Amino acid sequence: MAVCDPVADMLARLRNAHQGLHAHVNVPVSKMKADLARILKEEGFIADYEVGERDMVITLKYAGGKPVINGAKKISTPGRRVYVGVGDIPRVRNGLGICVLSTSRGILEGNRAATEKVGGELLCEIW
Q1: Digit-coded pLDDT (tens) for 93-114
Q2: Which 3 state secondary structure label does DSSP give 54?
Q3: Is the pTM here over 0.85, yes or no?
Q4: Are 12 and 49 within one domain?
């Protein structure tokens, strides 16, 4: 089945798997979703991910039996793209969360994009 917004689909799968306390979740693979999974692993929101030929298996992370990802919000949608400059990159939950941007230098976490002085399309916020 074709998906209009693959990043929103990935976030929904993560949210649903966390609610069911699953250890792993399968996501159809794409370069953007693999980069998003890399950022989530670097920031400590997921335990690991493995990219296969057609699917990506994400190992979820729990702390004290509760999911590490408390929430995820898709900002830019196919019908309404949201772009931010380097000075407008938001802080998520007073620094407890991250925002993910699609920039000219690839998919970057908000703080790294600000450090590299590059803005772009605001994909999502995760806390």
Answers
A1: 999 999 999 999 999 999 999 9
A2: coil
A3: yes
A4: yes
